[in-house]
Amino acid sequence: MLMQTHEARLAALREELKKRGLDGFVIPISDEHMSEYVGDYAQRLAWLTGFGGSAGSAAVTLDTAAIFVDGRYTVQVRDQVDERLFAYQSVPATSPAKWLAENAGEGAKVGFDPWLHSRGWAKAAGKALADVGAELVPVSGNPIDAVWQDRPEPSAAVATIQEEALAGRGHADKRGEVAQWLKDKKLDAAVISALDSVAWLLNIRGKDVTHTPVALSYVIAHEDGTAELFIAEEKVTPELRQHLGNAVTIRDRMDFEPALKSLSGKRVAVDPDYGVAAISLALEEGGATPVSERDPTILAKAVKNGVEAQGHREAQALDGVAVCKYLHWLSVEAPKGGIDELTAAAKLLEFRRHYGDLRDTSFDTISAASGHAALPHYKVDEDSNIPIPPGSIYLCDSGGQYPCGTTDITRTVWIGTPDGQAQPTAEMKDRFTRVLKGHIAIAQAIFPEGTCGGQLDTLARHALWQAGTDFAHGTGHGVGSFLSVHEGPQRIGKVNGAQAGTLEPLKAGMILSNEPGYYKAGEFGIRIENLVLTEERHIDGADEGTWFGFENLTWVPIDRTLIEPALLSENERSWLNRYHADTRALLAPRLEGEVLDWLMEQTEPL
């Protein structure tokens, strides 16, 4: 009989811990690749606690338990997780390691799955426990898997090929670049464990993880340019074998750990963020030396070549048509009432599927009405779904995965009333316009070589700061090419220890989002998001050196109803009018009828 309640599941886990001589255990949202999104088979935290967010963890002892989330999930965790079973804990104010150090007690043995945590986390947590006389112990086989009776199997979908016509480079060329990097670093091999890195390096894709077109696999890349791909046999097709050729050995995924142990005497690069602790443990057990180095594909993947950049332009045009059709539909139907958040999200997906070669959404659509729009990471479901009220602000953040590129766009729009009388308040227009001013400032930024995203971030916030307000998320993240919608290493955000990537110098070819926002708790939220491509800029009379700016990639009208024109400078007004003229020029030939009429009206000069 299956365990239906979280109370029964927690009790079963505790019994399993007792059998193993453990006094506690840590449960993250993670997989063996430290992925942002994980397959159903790896949703251990959700199974144990009921929490459905994308970031969080839990810690369990034999008599108490806690769940740890950041500020994005303060409301959600209370809706989904029984406080009688799990105490709510906020990070970064605390952490599983700190909590366990306070609750496990001297002499306690706390288990962790080394395939789900980084080496750095294991060292830090181990020290925190050692300081109070407890011990962090790697487990062989996850104890949750031992009691999760109906745990899904990992996806068996076959791996597919990303043709060079879309990738812009062959995988032999990419492997050669990694081999040269290894030689320069005096290393023998590199473990490539991040799923999007494997996909980029070998020009393969898959359907194993929602929102990210990757195949569950690992690569060991060698300094002679050869590589070993570890992947389940059922995923391998004759076409894949032919694509990879003789220089890439295909081995079963189960052979990965033994292969690590066979690298005796080798110096092997392991990424500190994406290489789980088990990789370094296996290397050391086999007599190899793990060397902490950033995955050599990370930066190369982030710098898009000309083919990838053109693919993104094509994907944005496809997506722009779908989003325009959606916003036109919303402008007609939502003022009548009767449209809710789920219906709206489903309609947008329908338009994307109908118009372009959509393979998946790039993340869960944020379809947010009223106060829900003030939650930057809101996720609508059957329980949270509400109607979109006429006479209100509605925010939609969404994206698509197309073979030629990955999209991510946010539009905030005014939902009118049937009589056309309802208008946004002065406060709404003020805040929307200040967000727009920040968006334009990033879009127009010119900066010298070596500039990082943290140095640009203030531009997005300046107009909001002048009104005594701010937004609590980053301004921009990297985006992949038919890969992860959140791709490092670059990022635009406030510079602090929690914001990895804000100190990464921006390079030509990097794609970022530009998405400042404003959120009034319980009432409304505003965000305007386009994607931009970093490019070199020639500036007459500039000092020596290389200078950069951004090419805009996303083309969908920005709601003029919410703009307070008096707040815009002449330069900002000119930018907006040019943006709308360019949007019209690109999309008008692809639209017709009422949607074309809507586009023409929405792109009139301000």
UniProtKB/TrEMBL annotation:
<dbReference type="GO" id="GO:0070006">
    <property type="term" value="F:metalloaminopeptidase activity"/>
</dbReference>
<keyword id="KW-0645">Protease</keyword>
<protein>
    <submittedName>
        <fullName>Aminopeptidase P</fullName>
    </submittedName>
</protein>
<dbReference type="InterPro" id="IPR000994">
    <property type="entry name" value="Pept_M24"/>
</dbReference>
<dbReference type="InterPro" id="IPR050422">
    <property type="entry name" value="X-Pro_aminopeptidase_P"/>
</dbReference>
<dbReference type="GO" id="GO:0046872">
    <property type="term" value="F:metal ion binding"/>
</dbReference>
<comment type="similarity">
    <text>Belongs to the peptidase M24B family.</text>
</comment>
<dbReference type="InterPro" id="IPR000587">
    <property type="entry name" value="Creatinase_N"/>
</dbReference>
<dbReference type="Pfam" id="PF16188">
    <property type="entry name" value="Peptidase_M24_C"/>
</dbReference>
<dbReference type="InterPro" id="IPR032416">
    <property type="entry name" value="Peptidase_M24_C"/>
</dbReference>
<feature type="domain" description="Peptidase M24 C-terminal">
    <location>
        <begin position="547"/>
        <end position="606"/>
    </location>
</feature>
<dbReference type="InterPro" id="IPR036005">
    <property type="entry name" value="Creatinase/aminopeptidase-like"/>
</dbReference>
<keyword id="KW-0479">Metal-binding</keyword>
<keyword id="KW-0031">Aminopeptidase</keyword>
<dbReference type="Pfam" id="PF16189">
    <property type="entry name" value="Creatinase_N_2"/>
</dbReference>
<keyword id="KW-0378">Hydrolase</keyword>
<dbReference type="Pfam" id="PF00557">
    <property type="entry name" value="Peptidase_M24"/>
</dbReference>
<dbReference type="InterPro" id="IPR029149">
    <property type="entry name" value="Creatin/AminoP/Spt16_N"/>
</dbReference>
<dbReference type="InterPro" id="IPR033740">
    <property type="entry name" value="Pept_M24B"/>
</dbReference>
<dbReference type="Pfam" id="PF01321">
    <property type="entry name" value="Creatinase_N"/>
</dbReference>
<dbReference type="GO" id="GO:0005737">
    <property type="term" value="C:cytoplasm"/>
</dbReference>
<feature type="domain" description="Peptidase M24">
    <location>
        <begin position="311"/>
        <end position="535"/>
    </location>
</feature>
<feature type="domain" description="Creatinase N-terminal">
    <location>
        <begin position="9"/>
        <end position="141"/>
    </location>
</feature>
